[in-house]
Amino acid sequence: MSISHPLYRGRFAPSPTGPLHFGSLVAAVGSFLDARARGGEWLLRMEDIDAPRCSMAAAEDILRTLESFGFAWDGAVVWQHQRQAAYADALLQLQKIKQVFPCACTRRELADSLLATDGAAIYPGTCRLGMAEGKKAQAWRVRVSPASASAAPIVFEDAIQGRIESDLSRDAGDFIVRRADGMFAYQLAVVVDDAAAGITHVVRGADLLLSTARQIFLQHCLGLPAPFYAHLPVVVNAAGEKLAKQTLATPLDSKRPMVGLISALTLLGHKPPPELVDASLDELWAWAIRHWRLENVPRQRALPVAEKSIMQETS
Ligand code: GLU
Asked: I need a labelling partner for 168 at 20 to 30 A (CA). Which of 151, 156, 263, 300 fits?
């Protein structure tokens, strides 16, 4: 992959824990169109870092589905399972500057902690100044604010959601970068991978908005550039739950890509004209690239869609 810096290099980074569903299609469409409409590159990264939850079969199925929907990515697919050495280097760098500390707390010991908005325990700081005698390190955590300094909140301008401000010690606490099972955490992997690939623009679902502050913090610590961010509204069902396998969102039907694409475009504020319903996939993409404007995407974090209607339209 070239290390020159294009004006725009975006990416789509699915986790191969199951087949692509409508929610992931929306993120793929948004990131792809934003890159292509601005003459940019669009890369694909398989986020198979959480080995027990991921499978090669699911990854291959995702690649085939993306192809059948007419997505074309630049360069080779990046696989997180092949990038352990880069994550280990980043951890070493954090260890050298004492930005991380070993933590001996078990899940049970953290059971009473306050919860962050994403449901994870906010670390109460037990091992921050050292583990109690005889305790064994389980994980590595990043210190989100030096004990002394008055840590400034992380502030960034999201191209869709506007100004986002997060005080990490309140919103996340010292978060995990290497898990007790030895696996590197998503937050560290994403930051290392985006920087290594020279990603300039991250367009993804607003369910990751709270992760972004943590990622910007890690970029600061590791001396990496921060990309521009745009968080698309996530599709939720009538109960306000994200469409995911758990809520029975149906896998996309590769044989009927037009139906899924038209639904995704409509949801993103780019309803194709009726004559395109019977057009070819290429014609629909050409129209979408010509008409894509990030400012037409609804400025919402969640968009409720009747799950049944998506199932009927996309299956
Ligand atoms: N792998 C993540 C997911 O599927 C996306 C990560 C990202 O776009 O930064 O939710």
From this structure: 300
